[in-house]
Amino acid sequence: MSSKQNTYTQWMVIASGEGGGRIASQFFTRSDNPGIDDRILVMNTNRADIRNTITRIEDRIDDDPWARHALEFGSQQGAGNFFVTGKEAAREDLDRIVASISDLSGHTDAFLHAATLGGGTGNGSIPYVIDQFRSGLDTSQHKQWMDSTIHAALAVWPYYYEAPQRQFNAVCGLSRLLRSSDGSQNADMVLLVANSHLSDDETTGTDYGQVNDQIISAIDLMIGAGRETRGVIDIQDYVTVPSQIGAYHFTPAVATELNGDLFEMEYMFDKAAENAFVPMDVGTSRVTYAVVRAPEHMIENGDITEPDVQNAFNEWKRKHGLLGASGMTSLTPKQDRSNEVDVLLLLGGFDLDPLLDHSWDEFEEYKQSLQSGRSLGNARLSADDLRRIEDNLTEYMEINEG
Protein backbone atom coordinates (compact mmCIF):
# COMPACT_ATOMS: atom_id res chain seq x y z
CA MET A 1 0.00 0.00 0.00
CA SER A 2 1.38 3.41 -0.95
CA SER A 3 1.81 6.30 1.45
CA LYS A 4 -0.96 8.08 -0.50
CA GLN A 5 -3.32 5.22 0.23
CA ASN A 6 -2.35 5.29 3.89
CA THR A 7 -3.71 8.82 4.12
CA TYR A 8 -7.15 7.89 2.80
CA THR A 9 -10.04 8.53 5.15
CA GLN A 10 -11.64 5.34 6.44
CA TRP A 11 -15.36 5.30 7.11
CA MET A 12 -17.61 2.83 8.89
CA VAL A 13 -21.37 2.55 8.38
CA ILE A 14 -23.39 1.90 11.54
CA ALA A 15 -27.01 1.20 10.63
CA SER A 16 -29.74 0.74 13.22
CA GLY A 17 -33.34 -0.31 12.71
CA GLU A 18 -35.09 -1.87 9.73
CA GLY A 19 -34.77 1.19 7.47
CA GLY A 20 -31.11 1.68 8.32
CA GLY A 21 -30.53 -2.00 7.62
CA ARG A 22 -32.00 -1.66 4.13
CA ILE A 23 -29.61 1.19 3.37
CA ALA A 24 -26.64 -0.77 4.75
CA SER A 25 -27.48 -3.85 2.71
CA GLN A 26 -27.51 -1.75 -0.46
CA PHE A 27 -24.07 -0.41 0.41
CA PHE A 28 -22.93 -4.02 0.31
CA THR A 29 -24.74 -5.02 -2.86
CA ARG A 30 -24.65 -1.85 -5.01
CA SER A 31 -21.50 -0.01 -4.02
CA ASP A 32 -17.78 -0.75 -4.04
CA ASN A 33 -16.46 2.24 -2.14
CA PRO A 34 -12.90 1.72 -0.86
CA GLY A 35 -13.56 4.34 1.79
CA ILE A 36 -16.01 1.92 3.44
CA ASP A 37 -14.93 -1.57 2.24
CA ASP A 38 -16.78 -4.06 4.48
CA ARG A 39 -16.87 -1.86 7.59
CA ILE A 40 -20.65 -2.04 7.97
CA LEU A 41 -22.50 -2.94 11.17
CA VAL A 42 -26.25 -3.62 11.21
CA MET A 43 -28.00 -3.29 14.57
CA ASN A 44 -31.57 -4.03 15.55
CA THR A 45 -33.71 -4.92 18.53
CA ASN A 46 -35.54 -7.47 16.39
CA ARG A 47 -33.66 -10.57 15.20
CA ALA A 48 -36.05 -11.16 12.29
CA ASP A 49 -35.27 -7.72 10.86
CA ILE A 50 -31.53 -8.36 11.13
CA ARG A 51 -32.00 -11.73 9.41
CA ASN A 52 -33.68 -10.01 6.46
CA THR A 53 -30.70 -7.67 6.10
CA ILE A 54 -28.09 -10.41 6.48
CA THR A 55 -29.83 -12.53 3.86
CA ARG A 56 -29.39 -9.71 1.37
CA ILE A 57 -25.63 -9.37 1.98
CA GLU A 58 -24.30 -12.79 2.98
CA ASP A 59 -23.18 -13.73 -0.55
CA ARG A 60 -21.08 -10.55 -0.81
CA ILE A 61 -18.76 -11.10 2.15
CA ASP A 62 -16.26 -13.82 2.98
CA ASP A 63 -16.55 -13.91 6.78
CA ASP A 64 -19.53 -14.81 8.97
CA PRO A 65 -21.98 -11.90 8.66
CA TRP A 66 -23.64 -12.71 11.98
CA ALA A 67 -20.34 -12.67 13.83
CA ARG A 68 -18.96 -9.40 12.46
CA HIS A 69 -21.69 -7.40 10.79
CA ALA A 70 -24.84 -7.90 12.90
CA LEU A 71 -25.82 -7.06 16.45
CA GLU A 72 -29.10 -7.68 18.22
CA PHE A 73 -29.34 -5.34 21.21
CA GLY A 74 -31.76 -4.73 24.06
CA SER A 75 -33.92 -7.20 25.94
CA GLN A 76 -37.16 -6.47 24.07
CA GLN A 77 -38.09 -7.74 20.61
CA GLY A 78 -38.60 -4.48 18.78
CA ALA A 79 -39.09 -0.88 19.87
CA GLY A 80 -42.82 -0.65 19.29
CA ASN A 81 -42.27 2.23 16.85
CA PHE A 82 -41.41 4.60 19.69
CA PHE A 83 -37.98 6.18 19.89
CA VAL A 84 -37.73 6.13 23.70
CA THR A 85 -37.77 2.31 23.64
CA GLY A 86 -34.99 2.24 21.05
CA LYS A 87 -32.95 4.64 23.15
CA GLU A 88 -33.38 2.53 26.29
CA ALA A 89 -32.38 -0.63 24.41
CA ALA A 90 -29.14 1.10 23.33
CA ARG A 91 -28.51 2.30 26.88
CA GLU A 92 -29.01 -1.26 28.14
CA ASP A 93 -26.46 -2.73 25.72
CA LEU A 94 -24.06 0.18 25.18
CA ASP A 95 -21.00 -1.93 26.06
CA ARG A 96 -21.87 -4.53 23.41
CA ILE A 97 -22.59 -1.85 20.81
CA VAL A 98 -19.24 -0.14 21.40
CA ALA A 99 -17.43 -3.48 21.36
CA SER A 100 -18.98 -4.42 17.99
CA ILE A 101 -18.06 -1.06 16.51
CA SER A 102 -14.51 -1.32 17.81
CA ASP A 103 -13.98 -4.90 16.60
CA LEU A 104 -15.13 -4.15 13.06
CA SER A 105 -13.85 -0.64 12.48
CA GLY A 106 -10.21 -0.60 13.57
CA HIS A 107 -8.87 2.97 13.60
CA THR A 108 -11.76 4.45 11.62
CA ASP A 109 -11.73 8.20 10.94
CA ALA A 110 -15.47 8.71 10.55
CA PHE A 111 -18.68 6.90 11.39
CA LEU A 112 -21.72 7.22 9.13
CA HIS A 113 -24.71 6.43 11.34
CA ALA A 114 -27.78 5.51 9.26
CA ALA A 115 -31.36 5.49 10.50
CA THR A 116 -34.86 6.24 9.30
CA LEU A 117 -36.48 8.84 11.53
CA GLY A 118 -40.04 7.54 11.46
CA GLY A 119 -39.38 4.40 13.48
CA GLY A 120 -38.32 3.56 17.00
CA THR A 121 -35.16 1.43 16.92
CA GLY A 122 -32.77 3.43 14.75
CA ASN A 123 -34.31 6.77 15.58
CA GLY A 124 -34.02 6.01 19.27
CA SER A 125 -30.59 4.38 19.38
CA ILE A 126 -28.48 6.37 16.89
CA PRO A 127 -28.79 9.83 18.53
CA TYR A 128 -28.12 8.20 21.92
CA VAL A 129 -25.03 6.30 20.72
CA ILE A 130 -23.60 9.45 19.09
CA ASP A 131 -24.25 11.41 22.27
CA GLN A 132 -22.39 8.82 24.34
CA PHE A 133 -19.38 8.98 22.02
CA ARG A 134 -19.42 12.78 22.01
CA SER A 135 -19.77 13.16 25.76
CA GLY A 136 -16.99 10.68 26.56
CA LEU A 137 -17.73 6.98 26.77
CA ASP A 138 -17.70 5.38 30.16
CA THR A 139 -17.47 1.78 29.01
CA SER A 140 -14.86 -0.96 29.24
CA GLN A 141 -15.02 -1.37 25.45
CA HIS A 142 -14.00 2.22 24.75
CA LYS A 143 -10.77 2.66 22.76
CA GLN A 144 -8.84 5.92 22.87
CA TRP A 145 -8.83 6.36 19.09
CA MET A 146 -12.62 6.62 19.18
CA ASP A 147 -12.40 10.02 20.89
CA SER A 148 -11.33 11.73 17.66
CA THR A 149 -13.71 9.91 15.31
CA ILE A 150 -16.16 12.15 13.47
CA HIS A 151 -19.85 11.27 13.62
CA ALA A 152 -21.98 11.93 10.54
CA ALA A 153 -25.65 10.93 10.68
CA LEU A 154 -27.73 9.94 7.66
CA ALA A 155 -31.33 10.65 8.66
CA VAL A 156 -34.23 9.62 6.39
CA TRP A 157 -37.55 11.43 6.82
CA PRO A 158 -40.73 9.32 6.66
CA TYR A 159 -43.22 9.67 3.83
CA TYR A 160 -45.39 12.72 4.44
CA TYR A 161 -48.61 10.67 4.51
CA GLU A 162 -47.38 8.31 7.25
CA ALA A 163 -49.09 8.20 10.66
CA PRO A 164 -48.73 11.05 13.19
CA GLN A 165 -46.61 8.89 15.49
CA ARG A 166 -43.99 8.51 12.76
CA GLN A 167 -43.95 12.26 12.10
CA PHE A 168 -43.61 12.82 15.85
CA ASN A 169 -40.67 10.41 15.94
CA ALA A 170 -39.06 12.23 13.00
CA VAL A 171 -39.26 15.68 14.58
CA CYS A 172 -37.87 14.34 17.87
CA GLY A 173 -35.18 12.36 16.05
CA LEU A 174 -33.95 15.38 14.11
CA SER A 175 -33.76 17.43 17.29
CA ARG A 176 -31.85 14.70 19.13
CA LEU A 177 -29.37 14.26 16.28
CA LEU A 178 -28.71 17.99 16.17
CA ARG A 179 -28.48 18.61 19.89
CA SER A 180 -27.98 16.70 23.11
CA SER A 181 -30.37 17.22 26.00
CA ASP A 182 -28.14 19.99 27.43
CA GLY A 183 -28.38 21.97 24.19
CA SER A 184 -24.85 21.22 22.96
CA GLN A 185 -24.12 19.92 19.45
CA ASN A 186 -24.62 16.18 19.03
CA ALA A 187 -23.72 14.75 15.59
CA ASP A 188 -20.91 16.52 13.75
CA MET A 189 -22.96 16.45 10.57
CA VAL A 190 -26.61 15.52 9.87
CA LEU A 191 -27.42 14.51 6.29
CA LEU A 192 -31.17 14.77 5.65
CA VAL A 193 -33.14 12.79 3.07
CA ALA A 194 -36.92 12.90 2.60
CA ASN A 195 -38.56 9.77 1.21
CA SER A 196 -41.46 11.61 -0.41
CA HIS A 197 -39.16 14.13 -2.04
CA LEU A 198 -37.04 11.44 -3.72
CA SER A 199 -39.62 8.79 -4.54
CA ASP A 200 -41.87 8.71 -7.58
CA ASP A 201 -44.35 6.64 -5.57
CA GLU A 202 -46.45 8.93 -3.37
CA THR A 203 -49.14 6.35 -2.60
CA THR A 204 -47.62 3.14 -1.29
CA GLY A 205 -44.25 4.20 0.07
CA THR A 206 -42.68 0.88 -0.81
CA ASP A 207 -40.04 1.92 -3.35
CA TYR A 208 -37.20 2.13 -0.85
CA GLY A 209 -34.73 0.76 -3.40
CA GLN A 210 -35.09 3.83 -5.61
CA VAL A 211 -34.52 6.19 -2.68
CA ASN A 212 -31.60 4.19 -1.30
CA ASP A 213 -29.87 4.06 -4.69
CA GLN A 214 -29.85 7.86 -4.73
CA ILE A 215 -28.57 7.98 -1.15
CA ILE A 216 -25.69 5.63 -1.98
CA SER A 217 -24.79 7.64 -5.07
CA ALA A 218 -24.53 10.78 -2.95
CA ILE A 219 -22.46 9.08 -0.23
CA ASP A 220 -20.09 7.63 -2.84
CA LEU A 221 -19.49 11.11 -4.24
CA MET A 222 -19.06 12.63 -0.78
CA ILE A 223 -16.57 10.02 0.41
CA GLY A 224 -14.76 9.92 -2.94
CA ALA A 225 -13.90 13.60 -2.57
CA GLY A 226 -11.58 12.67 0.31
CA ARG A 227 -9.54 10.24 -1.76
CA GLU A 228 -7.86 10.61 -5.16
CA THR A 229 -8.86 14.17 -5.98
CA ARG A 230 -7.78 17.52 -7.31
CA GLY A 231 -8.72 19.88 -4.52
CA VAL A 232 -9.55 17.59 -1.63
CA ILE A 233 -12.66 18.01 0.49
CA ASP A 234 -12.66 15.56 3.35
CA ILE A 235 -14.81 14.91 6.37
CA GLN A 236 -12.96 17.43 8.54
CA ASP A 237 -13.76 20.12 5.97
CA TYR A 238 -17.42 19.14 5.99
CA VAL A 239 -17.77 19.62 9.74
CA THR A 240 -15.36 22.29 11.02
CA VAL A 241 -16.85 25.59 9.83
CA PRO A 242 -20.49 24.41 9.94
CA SER A 243 -20.08 23.45 13.60
CA GLN A 244 -18.57 26.85 14.36
CA ILE A 245 -21.54 28.71 12.90
CA GLY A 246 -24.25 26.29 14.07
CA ALA A 247 -25.21 25.16 10.56
CA TYR A 248 -24.35 21.47 10.50
CA HIS A 249 -27.49 20.00 8.90
CA PHE A 250 -27.09 19.22 5.20
CA THR A 251 -28.85 17.66 2.29
CA PRO A 252 -27.23 16.23 -0.84
CA ALA A 253 -28.22 17.47 -4.30
CA VAL A 254 -27.04 15.24 -7.12
CA ALA A 255 -26.97 15.15 -10.93
CA THR A 256 -25.21 12.27 -12.66
CA GLU A 257 -24.23 11.25 -16.19
CA LEU A 258 -24.17 14.80 -17.54
CA ASN A 259 -22.47 15.25 -20.92
CA GLY A 260 -19.22 17.07 -20.18
CA ASP A 261 -18.79 18.09 -23.83
CA LEU A 262 -22.28 19.55 -24.11
CA PHE A 263 -23.02 21.25 -20.79
CA GLU A 264 -21.34 24.17 -19.01
CA MET A 265 -20.28 23.53 -15.43
CA GLU A 266 -22.62 26.17 -14.01
CA TYR A 267 -25.55 24.43 -15.73
CA MET A 268 -24.46 21.17 -14.07
CA PHE A 269 -24.65 22.82 -10.66
CA ASP A 270 -28.14 24.04 -11.50
CA LYS A 271 -29.21 20.51 -12.47
CA ALA A 272 -27.85 19.13 -9.21
CA ALA A 273 -29.59 21.83 -7.16
CA GLU A 274 -32.91 20.83 -8.74
CA ASN A 275 -32.43 17.39 -7.19
CA ALA A 276 -31.97 18.32 -3.54
CA PHE A 277 -32.93 15.40 -1.27
CA VAL A 278 -35.35 17.45 0.87
CA PRO A 279 -37.73 20.32 0.08
CA MET A 280 -35.71 23.50 0.53
CA ASP A 281 -34.85 26.95 -0.78
CA VAL A 282 -31.27 26.72 -2.10
CA GLY A 283 -30.84 30.45 -1.52
CA THR A 284 -31.12 29.98 2.27
CA SER A 285 -28.03 27.74 2.45
CA ARG A 286 -25.27 29.00 4.72
CA VAL A 287 -22.70 26.37 3.70
CA THR A 288 -22.14 24.89 0.23
CA TYR A 289 -19.74 22.23 -1.01
CA ALA A 290 -19.38 21.06 -4.61
CA VAL A 291 -17.90 17.74 -5.71
CA VAL A 292 -17.44 17.14 -9.43
CA ARG A 293 -16.51 13.63 -10.59
CA ALA A 294 -15.24 13.51 -14.16
CA PRO A 295 -13.55 10.88 -16.35
CA GLU A 296 -9.81 10.91 -15.71
CA HIS A 297 -9.03 11.43 -19.39
CA MET A 298 -11.02 14.68 -19.38
CA ILE A 299 -9.07 15.94 -16.38
CA GLU A 300 -5.69 14.89 -17.79
CA ASN A 301 -6.52 16.55 -21.13
CA GLY A 302 -7.51 19.79 -19.42
CA ASP A 303 -11.14 19.57 -20.53
CA ILE A 304 -12.20 20.06 -16.89
CA THR A 305 -9.81 21.69 -14.43
CA GLU A 306 -9.95 22.62 -10.78
CA PRO A 307 -10.07 26.38 -11.63
CA ASP A 308 -12.95 25.65 -14.02
CA VAL A 309 -14.91 24.03 -11.21
CA GLN A 310 -14.10 26.76 -8.70
CA ASN A 311 -14.95 29.62 -11.07
CA ALA A 312 -18.21 28.04 -12.19
CA PHE A 313 -19.18 27.35 -8.58
CA ASN A 314 -18.49 30.97 -7.63
CA GLU A 315 -20.72 32.12 -10.46
CA TRP A 316 -23.43 29.68 -9.47
CA LYS A 317 -23.28 30.93 -5.87
CA ARG A 318 -23.40 34.54 -7.06
CA LYS A 319 -26.56 33.82 -9.06
CA HIS A 320 -28.26 32.35 -5.98
CA GLY A 321 -27.08 35.02 -3.55
CA LEU A 322 -24.71 32.61 -1.82
CA LEU A 323 -21.36 34.39 -2.10
CA GLY A 324 -21.31 34.79 1.68
CA ALA A 325 -21.82 31.05 2.21
CA SER A 326 -18.83 29.02 3.38
CA GLY A 327 -17.73 26.16 1.16
CA MET A 328 -15.17 24.36 -0.97
CA THR A 329 -14.92 22.50 -4.28
CA SER A 330 -13.30 19.24 -5.33
CA LEU A 331 -12.59 17.61 -8.69
CA THR A 332 -12.54 13.82 -8.48
CA PRO A 333 -11.42 11.46 -11.29
CA LYS A 334 -13.19 8.27 -12.28
CA GLN A 335 -12.13 5.48 -14.60
CA ASP A 336 -14.58 5.95 -17.44
CA ARG A 337 -14.10 6.20 -21.20
CA SER A 338 -17.24 8.30 -21.61
CA ASN A 339 -17.50 12.07 -21.14
CA GLU A 340 -20.17 11.80 -18.43
CA VAL A 341 -19.76 14.05 -15.39
CA ASP A 342 -21.38 13.62 -11.95
CA VAL A 343 -22.05 16.51 -9.56
CA LEU A 344 -22.78 16.55 -5.84
CA LEU A 345 -23.77 19.67 -3.96
CA LEU A 346 -23.87 19.48 -0.19
CA LEU A 347 -26.15 22.28 0.96
CA GLY A 348 -26.06 23.12 4.65
CA GLY A 349 -27.60 25.49 7.17
CA PHE A 350 -30.71 26.03 5.04
CA ASP A 351 -34.16 26.96 6.33
CA LEU A 352 -35.74 23.77 7.69
CA ASP A 353 -39.31 25.05 7.58
CA PRO A 354 -40.16 23.51 4.15
CA LEU A 355 -39.29 20.06 5.54
CA LEU A 356 -40.81 20.50 9.00
CA ASP A 357 -44.02 21.93 7.55
CA HIS A 358 -44.89 18.44 6.34
CA SER A 359 -44.78 17.00 9.88
CA TRP A 360 -45.32 19.72 12.44
CA ASP A 361 -49.11 19.46 12.68
CA GLU A 362 -48.86 15.70 13.18
CA PHE A 363 -46.12 16.27 15.78
CA GLU A 364 -48.42 18.62 17.70
CA GLU A 365 -51.34 16.21 17.37
CA TYR A 366 -49.33 13.30 18.77
CA LYS A 367 -47.83 15.46 21.51
CA GLN A 368 -51.33 16.37 22.66
CA SER A 369 -52.31 12.71 22.78
CA LEU A 370 -49.30 12.00 25.00
CA GLN A 371 -50.24 14.82 27.33
CA SER A 372 -53.75 13.38 27.48
CA GLY A 373 -52.38 10.11 28.85
CA ARG A 374 -51.82 8.03 25.72
CA SER A 375 -50.32 4.65 26.67
CA LEU A 376 -46.86 3.78 25.33
CA GLY A 377 -46.47 0.50 27.17
CA ASN A 378 -43.28 0.54 29.25
CA ALA A 379 -41.83 3.59 27.47
CA ARG A 380 -41.81 6.93 29.29
CA LEU A 381 -41.23 10.40 27.87
CA SER A 382 -41.50 13.08 30.50
CA ALA A 383 -42.96 16.50 29.78
CA ASP A 384 -39.56 18.07 30.60
CA ASP A 385 -37.72 15.77 28.18
CA LEU A 386 -40.18 16.54 25.40
CA ARG A 387 -39.95 20.27 26.09
CA ARG A 388 -36.16 20.15 25.83
CA ILE A 389 -36.38 18.24 22.56
CA GLU A 390 -38.78 20.82 21.12
CA ASP A 391 -36.85 23.82 22.46
CA ASN A 392 -33.53 22.50 21.11
CA LEU A 393 -34.95 22.11 17.62
CA THR A 394 -36.70 25.49 17.70
CA GLU A 395 -33.51 27.27 18.80
CA TYR A 396 -31.44 25.52 16.14
CA MET A 397 -33.94 26.46 13.45
CA GLU A 398 -33.89 30.10 14.56
CA ILE A 399 -30.13 30.19 13.97
CA ASN A 400 -30.71 28.89 10.43
CA GLU A 401 -33.76 30.87 9.40
CA GLY A 402 -34.20 31.76 5.73
Automatic annotation (TrEMBL):
<dbReference type="InterPro" id="IPR003008">
    <property type="entry name" value="Tubulin_FtsZ_GTPase"/>
</dbReference>
<dbReference type="GO" id="GO:0005525">
    <property type="term" value="F:GTP binding"/>
</dbReference>
<dbReference type="Pfam" id="PF00091">
    <property type="entry name" value="Tubulin"/>
</dbReference>
<protein>
    <recommendedName>
        <fullName>Tubulin/FtsZ GTPase domain-containing protein</fullName>
    </recommendedName>
</protein>
<feature type="domain" description="Tubulin/FtsZ GTPase">
    <location>
        <begin position="39"/>
        <end position="226"/>
    </location>
</feature>
<dbReference type="InterPro" id="IPR036525">
    <property type="entry name" value="Tubulin/FtsZ_GTPase_sf"/>
</dbReference>
